[in-house]
Design a protein that fits this description.
Elements (H helix, E strand, L loop, with lengths): L7 H5 L2 E5 L5 H18 L2 E8 L5 H17 L3 E7 L6 H11 L4 E5 L6 H5 L3 H8 L3 E5 L1
Parallel strand pairs: 1-2, 1-4, 2-3, 4-5
């Protein structure tokens, strides 16, 4: 056993994608806390992604302000991206596209709480991304 802390994670997870959407404020804070922790402790670059259903989606601005306020106070290096939902695409497929078009070491997703067969029945975004992602996936329940 080591007495000093090990920072091997700092080399493994340098760039992290964090898909974000409207959700319960407590759940959003939990997601932001985890993202901030990776940024703070390991120096990871955090990229928040919102998948918008329309060109000028007002939710994107609202979420960006929330992220900027929270991460700015903590001084965490981050970016906020918006992808427009393509025709015939799902939020999960847009997240997977983002992962494959850019280099990410991990994706952190918030689950709605479904698991097992119910996750498949209710079109769980987190399960779909976990199955198709080309990188490590952390799902928060």
């Amino acid at each position: 056993m080591r007495d000093e802390p090990s920072y091997e994670l700092a080399y493994k997870f340098r760039r992290i994608l964090v898909p974000i959407s409207l959700m319960n404020p407590a759940r959003l804070k939990e997601l932001l806390n985890v993202a901030a922790d990776f940024g703070e402790r390991y120096g990871a670059e955090i990229v928040f992604l919102y998948v918008a259903s329309s060109e000028n989606d007002p939710v994107a601005e609202q979420l960006q302000k929330t992220v900027e306020d929270y991460m700015g106070k903590k001084g965490i290096k981050h970016t906020f991206k918006v992808r427009r939902l393509g025709e015939g695409e799902t939020v999960a497929s847009e997240i997977v596209k983002e992962l494959s078009e850019n280099n990410y070491d991990m994706v952190v997703l918030m689950s709605r709480g479904y698991y097992g067969a119910s996750a498949l029945l209710y079109n769980s975004t987190s399960i779909a991304v976990a199955l198709a992602a080309n990188t490590s996936v952390l799902i928060l329940r």
